[in-house]
Amino acid sequence: MMKNTVAVENKHLAIRFSNTAGTLAGLFSKTAGKEFLSPGPHRRSPFAIYEGFSKPFAFLDNTVPGEPADFADRILLPARPVFEPFDGGLEILYLLSETLTARLRVELDGITSRWRLSLRNAGAETLSVLPVFPLIGGITLGKDARMLAMNQAGSVCKIWGFEGGAYGNGGRNSAQLGCFFEKDACLGFYFEDGTFGPKDIRYKKPAVEVRRFPEKTIAPGETLVVDDTVILLYRGSWHQTAKSYAAWMRHAFPLPKVPSWLGKTQSFAGAWFEKRGKPNYEGPNLSEPLDSFLEMDRHFAGGHPHLTEYAFFSELSAKDYGDRMYIYGSNRRHTDGWNIVRADLGGAEALKTGIEKVHALGKRVTLYVEGLIVPGESELFTEKPEARDWLIANPDGTNDGPYTGQNFAHMCCGSEGWQDHLAAMCARLMRETGADGIRLDSFSFYFWPCYNPAHKHRSPFDCNAWMQTLLSKVASAVRAVNPDALLATEAPADYNRLWFNTALDANFVKRCLHCQTQDSSVFRVMFPEFYMPRINGGQVMESLMLMPDGCFSFTGNAGSFFSRWHEFLPQFNDVLAKGEVCSSKPVCEDEGVFLNAARLPGKMLIVGARPDFLKRYAGKGRVGLQKARNTFEVSFLAKNKPDIITFFDIERGVSFHPDYNISDGVLRLITDSNWFAVLLKLR
User: Fold this and answer.
1) 3-class SS at 430?
2) What's the pLDDT at 683?
3) Residues 445, 169 contacting (CB under 8 angstroms)
4) Which are the contacts of 359, defined by CB distance < 8 A and separation ≥ 6?
5) What per-residue confidence (pLDDT) applies to 329?
6) Number of domain units in the chain
7) pLDDT at 557
8) In this structure, are 242 and 275 located in the same domain?
9) Structural domain contains residue 265
10) What is the CB-side half-sphere exposure of residue 612 using CA atoms within 13 A?
11) Residue 588 — pLDDT band, cuts 50, 70, 90?
12) Which residues contact 9 (CB under 8 A, 6 or more apart)?
């Protein structure tokens, strides 16, 4: 027992506080035999309160939240605690100042502890505060420890290799959760915040800080309650944290079904419509130039892709801007915010007929709609002059942002006019063309505060709430046309799952590829039905992460990796795309062999490879394969002998029923393949 501490504990865990200051002194998992905090005082744990804002909180730009210390007059830390234990938990009353008290409640349930912080203004004047809660300092794990980096679909990365940022910006924090782990000892956390409100989840060695921006006011006699935080201490895998958060979401909200056809989709590609005879951009999204949309079935003459998303279908996409280069290096607009289907390829009727031809081939088509930017010369602003009031306004009143130099206006997702226009436009496109769905590009890659007075925002920082309203309106409008439609954003955010059913994942961090490829993405574990094609990394990386293939290219050879993977994928795509990811992984003594597994009732799929992360592959956004071969044994848990076991040697392009042995509930087989899949049909 640690001296000078007060503990709350059960048979699974123990949480300790300093008996002098009430600061967090220990997080101990009894099941894992692991203490996660270093010994000694952690003055800034488990919370800090910034108080007295002489100037309002603000972002540094349209992406990065400011430091609370730059705006607040002072910081209040835990002090003068009064401990009030109860059956199964502990409350601590803190006297932070002459006028502000804090009450922390910690309640235990197995490996889970639920934390709630309440701040009460006992003075006569209104207070302004910005809580940082939880603030877990002194986290001490070894150099081989890992953490979750919630960049887009989320992945494993080296401890302190991810900084975090504003939750809702899919590239900084796409979900309200996190996890640190060392071997099988896990410190996980998530937030049961049904409003999905603003949070800056920041990782600064040796602490994680959750900054609840912006500042809030507490009137005299009133109490501010910070939503429940769940902290898990256990032996196992980070999967348990992810699945626990997903279980909360499923219980708290009705999640929409995915389209009935989506689970059969094996390959995704983005493409541009190009007019034959015009100077066409020679890029990776180029599809064969056409005289008319009526010919678009030519793009699907081969076996792939199964699902294609088209941009450059609007009227401004037909206009040649000469030497002026716009987004993606094209001399034409990829979108125009008005989205009347371009007449030079036949208009909406021709596009509808072309899509019907694609459907006859068993393929699907979705349309690209930009959610953030509109060209300054768009018809939107002439047909609806009021649309000029739908723009984001920065604190200085400008609309400057990442696309200003290309004469794009940045639209505010919280503008009711823009929300309604997007919903109506997407529904019209679905009616006119018979497309299978819509993807709203740029969403959710931004958490951009808006100060436009025309929008009458309650707060400039309600971006997540605005997005929820926008997604709800678009989903309702589109599903009124086609209930089986696919609805996607560019990046994922967890709350998107309340209305949408897919997003893209472009998370490819060269310095983290070794960690990323060792396990599935976080969203793949949380929501197996949430279809998220990886649009880079290549087939080796996708297969090891058990994620759908989004790397098909219309230009040139699809590549030998693509061909080899898709030769066998139809035989186990159902398990790979929507099976439950196994928390207990297959094992191999060769550290160069990466393994993953998923299950469906009656089936189990194992995918293995010896990946190569050399620059010649990573520089092209791909993970390669080792060329040399080693013979190694793969083992995994198998309670019973499988009915059928099929080995797919993807590297060599052969399949067979392998020799194996099974004893003591473990199945073992030997191979020298650098890339393979094993499908077990189970009793």
Assistant:
1) helix
2) 75
3) yes
4) 365, 434
5) 59
6) 3
7) 47
8) no
9) no
10) 14
11) very high
12) 15, 30, 108
